[in-house]
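# step 3/5: fold
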Amino acid sequence: MRHVFLVFLLLISTTVSSQILNAESLRKVTDTSGYSGSLSASIALKRNVNDFVTISSDIHIQYKMKDHLILFKNEVAFQKIEGQDFDNSLISHIRYNYRFHPRIAWEIFLQGQYNKINLIDFRGLVGTGPRFKLTQSEKYKFYLGTLVMYEHEKVTDGVTPTQKDFRGSTYLSFSMYPTEHITIISTTYYQPRIDKFNDYRISSQSSLLVGLFKNFALKTSYTFTYDTFPAVGIPNSQYDFSTGLTYSFD
């Protein structure tokens, strides 16, 4: 019972230290109306400025009704850097999709973020744009999104002023289902500043899910991010490698 309680705490704690949230991660593809989603917990080894351990969890809930989809994701991570105290980070994201064509949907999203490790005191995003379904196969699914977003960002490096910019956000996402119990998900984002294209961010995340038993899967993920102009003292490139359990429901 004690071990079950510890796992439960991880599941409900829901952030992640990456600078770009992967809204495609574990998006439930379903034609059924109603609620669905997932809960996951993981432990990650990561190298940034230092080596550290991350304990994270994330909750994803979505509601679908005919051509309408509302998706909510909340990610929380607690990070321990070379023996120091745990620091935390948080991303909350809500997205609305309206499918007006069998292969085209319009998206609107709102996101708030805090990340002490990357010196992000606050990053707020609001964006909109189309999402295209590129394939019709049930064994593999490809999607392309092309959005415009407004960003308000404040960092705590003591040098960088508050940023208020417009960025593009283009992503390519695919999901593959080679067997009944194996799922492969990968998403890559490219986010340039519209008035300054040499200021951009890239994020790529790939996940492998292996079904263990009903509604539970083992999830292994690799995430790489690159930011041309991060806060002073933060490296341009970062990576995460994590593994953990995921519980899905619908």
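# step 4/5: annotate
DSSP finds one helix and twelve strands in the chain.
# step 5/5: archive (pending)
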